[in-house]
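Please decode residue identities from the backbone states below.
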């Protein structure tokens, strides 16, 4: 507990690996009843007939202490026997699904076939794994990030994993977003939050799909909570992954300033890398307070330190 005598509710918007690091830090700093996580589902895919929600699983495995820290996704010490056999049977094996990880996707797919929503399934799985933090998908409706590269149209996982983010992307969009609704609890959490954190996740393929669900962006603009973002970019490149490439493809400047511009309509404070001190003035011209910090999170100590800095900003 915070010990400050009033209920603190921090709501976090996140994608997978980058966000999971900050969430691990936040989870170590505050009570689980004080943290609600809203997760991107634009990366979800169906493979081998299974519904896979990579970002929800990365957050779930991280909070359960199960995540493969070296990769930032999947379950540590997992084995790949089922995938090997799937390959022998002629299936595609470019998406590395471990044996234990497969149990999650089999459970999710089975429960959804019985009629449960993605929210209900997510809640069941996190409880079964002993997680007390609330994890909400952004939507129970199918919203799919799609990328146009040359004359090809790719899903996010085809671009990111199969093609190793090499194709020149011309356009990124969120199929199904217009008709989607926020998952139960999402708008309520944003409306009643005391602080909101936008994780250092890919702004184009992790945060933008969440913002594209009708009602979520407005809730962020209207909330009385302080909204604090953390930059996923240092200099002109993402800390990990293709965020800078996809920002350029979307017509945004590939820098922390470009991220700040994309979030300026709802952001109160933006935490950027010490190295990007020179962008401070430009960000503050957008009416967003800029704060510099060491935003690289390589171990639990640095995750917790950044989480404490973010919490201090959010509570103001
Ligand atoms: N990322 C990879 O780079 N290669 C993989 O084979 C891979 C498999 C995979 C399986 C389950 C899962 O939950 C995530 C997986 N990821 C893999 C990570 C995932 O593609 C990305 O981390 C997120 O979608 C980006 O946020």
């Amino acid at each position: 507990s915070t010990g400050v005598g009033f209920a603190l509710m921090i709501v976090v918007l996140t994608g997978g690996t980058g966000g999971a690091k900050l969430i691990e830090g936040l989870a170590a700093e505050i009570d689980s009843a004080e943290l609600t996580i809203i997760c991107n589902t634009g990366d979800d895919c169906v493979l081998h007939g299974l519904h896979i929600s990579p970002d929800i699983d990365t957050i779930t495995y991280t909070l359960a202490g199960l995540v493969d820290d070296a990769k930032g996704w999947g379950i540590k010490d997992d084995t790949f026997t089922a995938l090997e056999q799937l390959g022998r049977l002629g299936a595609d094996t470019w998406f590395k699904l471990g044996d234990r990880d497969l149990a999650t996707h089999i459970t999710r797919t089975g429960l959804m076939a019985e009629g449960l929503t993605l929210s209900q399934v997510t809640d069941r799985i996190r409880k079964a794994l002993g997680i007390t933090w609330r994890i909400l998908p952004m939507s129970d409706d199918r919203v799919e990030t799609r990328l146009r590269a040359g004359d090809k149209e790719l899903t996010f996982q085809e671009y990111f994993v199969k093609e190793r983010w090499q194709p020149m992307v011309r356009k990124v969009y969120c199929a199904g977003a217009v008709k989607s609704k926020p998952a139960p609890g999402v708008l309520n959490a944003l409306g009643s939050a005391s602080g909101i954190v936008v994780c250092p996740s890919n702004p184009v393929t992790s945060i933008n799909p969440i913002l594209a669900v009708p009602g979520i962006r407005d809730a962020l603009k209207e909330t009385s909570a302080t909204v604090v973002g953390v930059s996923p970019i240092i200099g002109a490149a993402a800390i990990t992954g293709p965020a800078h490439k996809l920002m350029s493809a979307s017509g945004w400047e590939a820098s922390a300033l470009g991220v700040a511009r994309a979030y300026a309509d709802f952001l109160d404070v933006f935490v950027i890398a010490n190295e990007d001190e020179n962008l401070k003035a430009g960000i503050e011209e957008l009416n967003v307070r800029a704060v510099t910090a060491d935003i690289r999170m390589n171990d639990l100590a640095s995750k917790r330190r950044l989480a404490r800095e973010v919490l201090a900003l959010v509570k103001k």
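Observation: The chain has 13 helices and 14 strands.
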